[in-house]
Amino acid sequence: MKQNSDPEWFTGDFAIDLALVRNEIGHNSDVHFREFHIGGTDVCAAIIFVEGLTDRELIDKHIIKSLMMSFTGGAVSRDFITNRVLSIGEVAEEQALKSLVAKVLTGSTALLIDGLPNALVLGTTKEKSRQIEEPVSEATVRGPRLGFTETLCDNTALLRQHGENASLSFMKLQVGQRTKKELVIAYIKDIADPDLVEEVKKRIQNIKADDVPESGYVEQLIEDNYLSPFTQVQNTERPDRVFSALMDGRVAILLDGTPFALIVPVTFSMMLHSPEDYYERWLPSYLFRLLRYLAAAISLFGPSLYISFVSFHQGLIPTKLALSIMGTRDGVPFPAIIEALIMEVTIEILREAGLRLPKQIGPTIGIVGGLVIGEAAVQAGIVSPIMVIVVALTAISSFAIPQYSAGISLRLLRFPAMFSAAVFGLYGVVLFALFLCSHLVKLKSFGVPYVSPIIPDRLTNWTDFMIRMPLKKIKRRMKPISANGSTRKK
Asked: In what order do the strands lie in the sheet with 168-175?
């Protein structure tokens, strides 16, 4: 219950309440206090706002002008002020000092009026955001050119723009212990499993962090297994990918201040799918998807297979090819594992350097550096030409993976696969693959098997798995995810 003597609550006395706010945030140079009288009366009032976060034109024309010049008399009451004087859309009442200060520091304007027991919070936030542009991290040839921005309301509006859908629901939460940020859970009410929505809400509410600056923090704090090298939460800049996931019964998480939305639950196959698969006809999409799976396999096992064959199983290589490989390795002082590590580490350094350099010179440095270093290493006899080909093919294959985070996982696992091949040969590669499969089978994302639809075996879900069947054949949503509305309506 509210106690008037408690400094945490407003007292109704204008001088005392204004002093409370001044003591709390008055030391900030960007916080402005504007005191005035309402109309021609002797009733004192004051507004408090933060410079740069509020719309000054809105404050001048619709708050100060309305209260000082448009007020024509009458009882100064809350209902009269909000319903007859203020020409502003968002008006709320606040009685707690801490809550009022938090809203002022995020762009709202506080209004204190002598005689009113509580403060009024006016929506004057000035949104600062960049223009909606094409997603940088997920390029497509065909499809929408819209990407999320750092403004939460813009991102929710982009999802609404996909079409009239009364079932599209947004649940707003706050994350961060010291710095509060708004977060939205998006889902289709009559498709998404209510238990899944509740589980997502529960995990987000259990986040204990002073500040959550980017959705990557949320991703790491809500995933099932933080020790797994595989990402269990999909991140994306594309509204069409998010909306497609919502229509499949999944849940999206949007955080204010970042253009990357999160999708849960996810499966490994989602990491190799592109929105463009559904914009093109099924035959080319079928081919491109198979090529991505092949590229993922090459990216993971390419160097390890080369090491195992060259070091242990030369008899499995055709004679002419074996002689050619041995000829190129003549004079190389290092074993295959050291040779592969030198080139792989060099490629990873060049890749990282290309990302950190300015956009104008980053790609040039990556391409030129790779060519120069590769050629110089071959001429110096440090590595063989065949190893340069293997590493180049591996790097190119990793670029074919649509999801950057999935590519990172495969790049990370490539190194233990190489060491397994160096110690046990082809048997080591097979053992590593079996260990990886056992881990994937046990891994789950919000209760959904990560390798669905292989585990559990649901043949109805294979129409949109490694292959992409014609849209007329894709009639059912993935059963472990969508509890309601499992059949797509045509």
From this structure: 168-175, 181-188, 251-255, 261-264, 234-236
